[in-house]
Amino acid sequence: MSSVIFSRWMASQKPRAHTMRSAPAFYRNLEEALDVRRKDHGLYTLIKNTWAEGATADFCSNDSLSFGASGRLRKAFEEELARNSSAQLGAGGSRLMDGNYDYIEAVEQEIADYHGVEAALIVGSGCDGNYAIFEGIPRPGDAIIYDELVHASIVDGMSRSLASTKVSFAHNDIDAFREALISVWDSQPLIKQGKKCVLIVVESFYSMEGDMSPLKELVQAAKEIFPAGNAQFIVDEAHSMGVVGERGLGFVEALGLDSEIAIKTHTFSKAFGSIGGVILGNHTVKNALVNFSRSTVFTAAPAFHQVAAIRAGYTLMPQPETKAGRDNIQHLVKRLFTKITAHPIWEEANDRNIISIPVSEDWEERNFQTQLVPLWTRERYGHWLTFHLDARKYSAFPVTFPVVPKGSARLRVVIHADHSEEQIDGLVAAICEWAEEMVQIETGTGGRGKVPWAAQQVYALTDEEGVNGAANKVTANGV
Ligand SMILES: Cc1ncc(COP(=O)(O)O)c(C=O)c1O
Q1: Per-residue pLDDT for 465 more than 80?
Q2: Average pLDDT over the chain, rounded to an integer
Q3: Is 208 touching ligand 1 by the criterion CB < 6 Å?
Q4: pLDDT tens digits for 326-355?
Q5: Which cofactor is recorded for it (predicted)?
Q6: Which helix (H) or strand (E) is 295 found in, with range?
Q7: Domain stop point among 277, 294, 316
């Protein structure tokens, strides 16, 4: 079954524009643009993941607390619906006009209280939250300093902002961050005088790297360089929400930095298993968002059922099962690191640049781990590893160009609360089995051909389906 999905995916990477010479320019031009992606095997297709059909174990989705897979969220949601059986589904308009309603206001206040902040604004998604923040918060003359790997929605939000200066710093690099702060201090007299502000933007967990922000050090540096307090932090907690912190409130809570952060965005599409986002801050921040953010003003308010699912997620947070799930994630990530790095093939596969896990290198120095474990591999090998894991019944997400820069392909493994030790051990065995095969292919030992067996299966099916798979085949030497 899985091979069929992958062979269809392979087939979809076949260039099309040249077959459309007589088609209207409108479609031909679009196909030409899509062909650029196909050339790198980078065309996104709307395939259904194999874990969704029960064919593989889900090491792929962001359902990290297993709220979705366990059915716990659905049950809590149904109970919430039953408690509000007369609520209308649609908000009926923008928050600023007809779309404000008691239920959303009550839930916002509950969320604010739960997080220990003054105010919360629920928005349609994490993306919408980031657009809203950067449209509404920076004032003319302010500067934004941001980690170079922040999410696309932050980048897009910043492009709509009124900030006069935007400076990126090398990912998680404290020296580069200090340099960026000093450059703004030196070049912006109004900021130096404390009349305008520096907004510092980071994520808590970076999902494609699997690492976390050195937030404590960044806060310390900002205080030293801007003692007047006009440097303020905005932290995107998309992937840490629910997963870390004493009450599962995220990275800022886990580090005890709540009083240092002006604005936090949490998304409910990851560990909370539903959809939506919330921006946490004080009343001034909320008022500014409501007034200045075009993406809040010119859209309908989040609907009742969306807010009800969010509230249902919060009802699960204090349950002992949720805390046990968080602890299990920590335990399993460490188990994965320990087992894989102790495997006999690991060192050679690592030395040959076949596979590596940078976040496994210094895990003992961290107080906690992220649930995100990217397996870095050679460009093109990412697909082969995906095919192999899938054949062994593990689903993980291949990330290649254009999502990440060329030459930095990886497979993102996401550890969930309901995974077991046996599954982790099985996953490690499958990864290492593939690594061993690749070592044999590269060294010409073991009587292997040039293409690993799982990929051969996919290619064979691609050919069988008559979609000229050969044109799309990848070999160890490239396309
Ligand atoms: C850091 C970060 N922020 C925001 C988002 C967007 O979240 P949503 O899916 O709720 O729009 C994502 C999603 O991948 C993310 O990783």
Answers
A1: no
A2: 92
A3: no
A4: 999 999 999 999 999 999 999 999 999 999
A5: pyridoxal 5'-phosphate
A6: helix 294-297
A7: 316
Ligand 1 contacts CB of residue 129 (under 6 A): no
- Residues contacting 1, CB < 8 A, separation 6+: 50, 53, 55
Q: Using the structure block, give the residue that is written with the tokens 């005088």.
A: 193
Do 131 and 259 fall into the same domain? yes
Q: Which of 131, 267, 295 to mutate to test the pocket of ligand 1 (most atoms within 8 A of CB)?
A: 267
* Residue nearest atom 8 in ligand 1 by C-alpha distance: 126
| pTM, 2 dp | 0.93
| Digit-coded pLDDT (tens) for 196-230 | 999 999 999 999 999 999 999 999 999 999 999 99
Domain count, the chain: 2
Residue 438: both structure tokens together: 């690749």
Phi, psi of 202 (to 5 degrees): -140, 165
The count of other CB atoms within 10 Å of the CB of residue 112 is 20
Percent of the chain at pLDDT exceeding 90: 81
Q: Tell me the C-alpha distance between 10 and 326, whole Å.
A: 37
Question: Which residue, of 264, 284, 316, is where some domain finishes?
Answer: 316
Selection from 233, 208, 21 nearest residue 137 by Cα: 233
CA atoms of 374 and 371, how far apart (whole Å): 10
